[in-house]
Every structure is written in structure tokens, then in C-alpha cells.
């Protein structure tokens, strides 16, 4: 009985931690995205999606736009974490996270691309932008995926036949 | 006759002292090696042999033991029939550490460790008396982990002093020192230290198992050789365990639930499990007020980031100035110089590396001259000749200083390799090279696992509390729980 209760409790805590880590992931990689945008590594930042596609005005540009958008991205970051928690938490290692990140990128940059007025269509994006944003999504995916699966497996590394590689 | 050093470890001692003498002469090479010998004395009309290695034991102590034994002969009222001679001898050994053994191999190991072994005629047991006194230095402050204030003792090459220094700080009855002998020929003492009711038993078992599985001639480079057996390094340049020479750092980690490995003949103690972020902290931060400690730590983080990313970023902006926002447009060399920038960076970086490598083995008397030559040649002449632009020197020097501000020497060298690879990637592929290089760097760190511990914890996998502890050096009363990474049996610090 007590055992079961504790298990349920730990499951809810894993759930909350997953959502929290999604938000933090949104914040960290959102900031990285802003920096990359500042240095023109990429023509788009998260603000291009959340603000510039829907609003016009000088406040959507520059630092203010990035900061406001960062708040939004932090909240939005919870959603992919929730999805990962619901469907993929059983996986181990970082490969699922990488694939998940790439999947997210495809969904946002290709499937939903027409929704975002300010984001250039996929075939008009330059390679630097594509590479930079894909890398950001991969890192976000690994951040969320690896954390959730690590928490799900009670903070233990599941032993594999190949333990580590560099 | 008895050349069975490794094969026949179960040979028992014989009753006859003559046979034992032959056995030991053969096993130890007595008469060939000058430093191994035995001395025969006569106690109560019985031959007693004392085996020893000169140079590893305390002479006055040995003499005292012998004197006490010889005095047995002068005790008149002795009733010989009641007790056997070897019992009388054992009782008369004035030392608190006496061990009995009946296997020749054990006796040989003890003799070679510096103990004296006493063999009595007519008895199949030998007594090993601990009179060791190893050539040794006294604890002094380690070169690599200096602090402004606080204790100045450091580990030495003697494992007994090291365990003593640690126990002086951890008087817990649950502190365990497990001794294992490693190496067919070196027979090095290895101690696994942990606090029994805190450390994760699984981790202790893994470490113990890995150490026991070691099958090797000798651990000449002691702790480093051992490390390579217990963690799989492969081509990973990053340090997978942390070393410390400070007993206070070591005991702080014991309290957290880490497992330490000490190896005789080395002052460096291995701390396991280790993550990337164990290598970016330093004892000095904990000797200052929390705010100052945090400040120092952030500066250090900045230095470490500089050491990795400054040069590739700058190279990128030189190659593609259009990337720079107009506020930063001044960055970039005014004159390009005669060689491509990327070659200049690599050359200058290799120059700094020359200095570092040379400084390790240059005698102090010459190193001043070396510093002068290096500074003048690289700093001045290279610019005048037109080999380097002045800005190159600035940025290479900055990133070299970042390298030196990394507390872990091993990590700083690994980061240097990363930096050079990133510079090359950037030179060839521009933004794509840098971004992909950065991503691969992070992914490789995340992928690394050292003793079943994710190396990039607590960033990925993310742990808010632990990350908070790394970003801010908190006051000790606020350390209420042990870090979850070591899987402590007891979460609360009391």
C-alpha cells in the first residue's frame, strides 16, 4: 500500500519535473536562439514566430521583442515536454531526444510554416539558418528527452551493452 | 627448486626452520639482493629467524624488538614446559600490530612491504611485525589547489598518512577503508574510502568490482593507471574522474556520498562519481564568503567559456564581418597580415602550447629566460615581422588565460583540444561549422557516462537544485541535502 502510494507520488513528481524541465529548456535554448539571431547566425529567432508573425511594431524587434518572446517560449516549452512525457518517456539515451528535436523542427518549420507570416518558406531559407535552428531543436530535444527518461528511470542510467563512447 | 612465485601461492611454511630458510632465500633472492636479508638469533635454545628489507623499516624499532626477544634468555624463572617457544616469542613482541600467517607468499609480501617477519623453529606460523617507516615527506600544500586561507596540509605519497589525514576530518564510525592489493608485481595498496550509511552501495560495489578485476603487472603511475582501468576513456579527452590532493576537499566529498579511491605512492586521490561540473569548482570558492565565492565562480565560468568559444567566434567574425550587429562592428583586424587568420590563430595557439609544455619540465633557473624569450618573440617580433596581427595575440592570450583559470588541469587541456577543433571547423564551414561543432561538443558531453553517472548532469539531464548549487556558491548551512547524483542512502545532511 505504502509502496504503491510512494510510486504514485514519485510518478507525479516526475510529471511535474518534466513540465518544469520543458519550461527551462524553452528558456535556455530560447536565449541561445536570441543570441544566434543577434549575431545573424539565423534569420529567425523565436520572436519571429511568436511576435513578428502576428504583430507589427517596433517593440517586436530588438531586445524588447526577444525578452517578451522568451517568456512566451518558456511557457510554450512545456508542451513538447508534455508530449515527450506522455509518449516517449520509456526510451533511453540521447538518440530519441535528437530525433524528437528534429521532428519538432520539421513540424514547426515545414508543416506549420505557412502559419507564420514572418518566417520565410522552407525552400527560401539559407543553409545557415536551417543548420542553426535544427541544432537548437536537437539540443532542446535532448535536454527534454534525456532529462525525462533519466527521471523516469529513477535517476539511473540504464545499462546498455556499450556503456559510453566519445 | 621453488621458483613458483605466482603459481604456487598456497605453499605453507614448514616446521623446520632450515626448510623455511631455503624457501625464503629462493623466493626473495637473499644473498643476491643486498637489501633483503635475515638475522638468526637464539631464544630459549631455539633458532629464530628475522627477515627484513633495509630501507623500509625503522632501525631503532627493529632493534628494540630483537632486544626484547633476546632478553627472554635471561629470564630465569621461566617455565619452559608450560608454553611453547613460539607462544612466548609472540607474547614478547613489543608492537601493537602483529599478524600471524602460515602461507609463505603472505610472509614474502609482508617482508617486501617493509614489515619484519619472525619465524620460529618448530612452528608453521610466522609473525609479521609492522615496523614500517617509508621514505616520506610531511604533508604540504598541494601546488595545484592552493587557497589563500585555510588548512595547508595535503596528501603525500604515503597511503597511511593519507588515510590518517582524512580520518582526522571524518571521525564517523561509518567511514570505511577497504584495502585491496593490485598488481602482480607492484602489489600496490589501493584503498576504497566511503561512508557506509551514506554512499550508494551499488557504486561502492561497482568500484570495488572494477578494481578487483584489474589484472596487471604493476601500477607504476599509480592513480592514473588505476583510473584507466576503472573508467572507459577511449578517445574522450575529458577527465572522467576528479583528483584532489586536499584532505578537506576529499572529506567534503565523502560527506556528500562520494566514493574515494586512494592509491599508495600517490598524493592524488580519485573522487567518483564525477561530472563535468565537478571540474569547474575550486576549494578557494568555499573559503570565501558566498557572494565572493559566487563571483569568483562566475568569472571562472566566463574564463572557461572564453577558453573554448572566443577564438572560433572571433575567427567567424573576421571571416564574415556582415554577421556582426552594428554595435560590435569594430571587431576584426585592421590589417589582415600576410597569412590567413585561421593559420595565425592555430600557430599562435600552438606557440602558447609550446610554452606550457616547456614550462612543465624547464628548471626554474631557466624558466625566467624562457618566459622572456617567449614574451618578446611572440609578443613583439612576430607582429613586427608581419607573422601575426596584434589582435591575434590579444585573443589567443585571452583564451590562454581562460584555459589557465580552469581549476582542473585535465579539463583545461581537453577544452583546448575542443577549441582547436572548433577553429578548424569554423575556418572550413563558417557558421555551419561553428554551430554544428558546438552541438556535437554538447552532445558528446551528454553522451559520456562515467561509472553509470551522466557526465553533463545537472544541465542534461536537468536537475534544478543541483544546477542552482553550481551557479551559486551557497552558504554551508543551506546545504540541506546531498546531491542526488551520488544516490545517497541518506538524503539529509545533519
From TrEMBL, chain A:
Keywords per UniProt: Membrane, Transmembrane, Transmembrane helix
InterPro entries tied to this protein: YqhR
Membrane spanning residue stretches: 14-39, 67-87, 99-118, 130-150
Pfam families, per the entry: YqhR (PF11085)
Top-level taxon: Bacteria
Protein name: Conserved membrane protein YqhR
UniProtKB/TrEMBL annotation, chain B:
A GO cellular-component term linked to this record: plasma membrane
Compartments in which it is found: Cell membrane; Membrane
Lineage: superkingdom: Bacteria
Keywords: Membrane, Transmembrane, Transmembrane helix
Pfam families: GerA
Entry's transmembrane regions: 298-319, 339-358, 365-386, 392-409, 421-443, 455-476
GO terms under biological process: spore germination
Membrane topology per record: Multi-pass membrane protein
Keyword Membrane carried by entry: yes
Family: Belongs to the GerABKA family.
Protein name as it appears in the record: Stage V sporulation protein AF
Source organism of this protein record: Tenuibacillus multivorans
Amino acid at each position: 500500500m505504502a509502496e504503491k502510494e510512494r510510486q504514485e507520488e514519485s510518478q507525479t513528481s516526475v510529471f511535474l519535473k518534466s513540465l518544469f524541465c520543458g519550461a527551462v529548456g524553452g528558456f535556455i535554448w530560447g536565449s541561445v536562439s536570441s543570441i544566434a539571431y543577434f549575431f545573424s547566425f539565423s534569420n529567425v529567432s523565436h520572436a519571429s514566430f511568436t511576435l513578428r508573425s502576428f504583430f507589427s511594431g517596433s517593440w517586436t524587434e530588438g531586445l524588447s521583442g526577444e525578452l517578451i518572446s522568451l517568456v512566451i517560449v518558456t511557457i510554450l516549452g512545456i508542451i513538447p515536454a508534455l508530449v515527450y512525457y506522455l509518449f516517449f518517456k520509456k526510451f533511453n539515451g540521447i538518440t530519441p531526444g535528437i530525433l524528437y528535436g528534429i521532428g519538432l523542427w520539421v513540424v514547426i518549420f515545414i508543416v506549420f510554416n505557412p502559419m507564420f507570416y514572418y518566417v520565410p518558406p522552407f525552400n527560401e531559407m539559407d543553409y545557415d539558418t536551417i543548420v542553426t535552428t535544427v541544432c537548437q531543436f536537437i539540443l532542446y530535444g535532448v535536454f527534454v528527452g534525456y532529462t525525462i527518461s533519466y527521471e523516469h528511470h529513477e535517476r539511473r542510467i540504464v545499462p546498455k551493452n556499450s556503456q559510453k563512447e566519445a | 627448486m621453488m621458483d613458483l612465485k605466482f603459481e604456487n601461492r598456497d605453499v605453507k611454511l614448514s616446521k623446520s626452520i632450515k626448510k623455511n630458510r631455503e624457501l625464503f632465500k629462493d623466493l626473495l633472492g637473499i644473498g643476491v639482493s643486498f637489501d633483503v636479508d635475515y638475522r638468526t638469533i637464539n631464544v630459549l635454545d631455539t633458532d629464530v629467524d628475522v627477515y627484513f628489507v633495509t630501507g623500509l623499516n625503522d632501525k631503532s624499532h627493529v632493534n628494540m624488538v630483537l632486544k626484547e626477544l633476546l632478553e627472554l634468555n635471561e629470564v630465569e624463572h621461566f617455565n619452559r614446559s608450560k608454553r611453547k617457544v613460539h607462544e612466548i616469542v609472540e607474547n614478547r613482541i613489543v608492537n601493537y600490530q602483529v599478524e600471524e600467517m602460515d602461507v609463505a607468499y603472505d610472509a614474502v609480501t609482508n617482508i617486501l612491504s617493509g614489515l619484519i617477519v619472525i619465524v620460529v623453529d618448530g612452528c608453521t606460523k610466522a609473525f609479521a611485525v609492522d615496523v614500517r617507516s617509508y621514505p616520506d615527506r610531511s604533508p604540504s600544500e598541494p601546488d595545484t589547489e592552493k587557497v589563500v586561507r585555510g588548512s595547508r596540509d595535503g596528501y603525500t605519497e604515503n597511503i597511511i598518512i593519507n588515510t590518517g589525514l582524512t580520518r582526522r576530518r571524518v571521525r564517523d564510525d561509518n567511514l570505511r577503508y577497504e584495502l585491496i592489493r593490485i598488481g602482480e608485481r607492484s602489489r600496490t595498496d589501493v584503498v576504497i574510502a566511503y561512508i557506509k550509511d551514506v554512499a550508494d552501495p551499488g557504486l561502492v560495489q561497482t568500484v570495488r568490482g572494477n578494481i578487483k578485476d584489474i589484472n596487471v603487472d604493476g601500477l607504476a603511475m599509480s592513480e592514473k593507471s588505476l583510473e584507466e582501468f576503472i573508467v572507459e576513456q577511449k578517445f574522450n579527452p575529458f577527465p572522467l574522474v576528479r583528483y584532489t590532493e586536499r584532505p578537506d576537499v576529499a572529506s567534503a566529498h565523502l560527506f556528500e556520498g562520494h566514493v574515494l579511491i586512494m592509491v599508495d605512492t600517490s598524493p592524488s586521490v580519485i573522487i567518483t562519481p564525477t561530472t563535468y561540473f565537478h571540474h569547474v569548482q575550486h576549494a578557494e570558492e568555499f573559503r570565501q564568503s558566498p557572494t565572493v565565492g559566487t563571483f569568483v565562480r562566475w568569472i571562472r565560468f566566463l574564463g572557461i567559456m572564453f577558453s573554448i568559444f572566443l577564438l572560433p567566434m572571433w575567427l567567424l567574425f573576421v571571416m564574415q564581418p556582415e554577421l556582426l550587429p552594428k554595435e560590435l562592428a569594430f571587431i576584426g583586424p585592421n590589417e589582415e597580415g600576410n597569412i590567413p587568420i585561421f593559420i595565425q590563430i592555430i600557430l599562435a595557439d600552438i606557440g602558447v602550447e609550446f610554452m606550457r609544455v616547456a614550462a612543465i619540465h624547464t628548471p626554474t633557473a631557466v624558466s625566467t629566460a624562457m618566459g622572456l624569450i617567449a614574451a618578446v618573440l611572440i609578443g613583439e617580433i612576430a607582429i613586427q615581422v608581419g607573422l601575426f596581427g596584434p589582435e591575434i595575440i590579444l585573443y589567443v592570450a585571452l583564451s590562454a588565460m581562460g584555459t589557465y583559470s580552469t581549476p582542473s588541469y585535465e579539463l583545461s587541456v581537453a577544452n583546448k583540444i575542443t577549441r582547436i577543433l572548433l577553429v578548424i571547423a569554423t575556418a572550413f564551414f563558417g557558421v555551419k561549422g561553428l554551430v554544428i561543432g558546438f552541438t556535437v561538443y554538447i552532445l558528446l558531453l551528454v553522451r559520456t557516462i562515467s561509472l553509470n553517472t551522466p557526465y553533463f548532469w545537472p544541465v542534461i539531464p536537468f536537475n534544478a537544485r543541483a544546477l542552482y548549487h553550481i551557479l551559486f556558491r551557497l552558504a554551508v548551512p543551506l546545504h540541506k541535502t546531498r546531491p542526488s547524483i551520488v544516490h545517497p542512502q541518506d538524503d539529509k545532511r545533519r
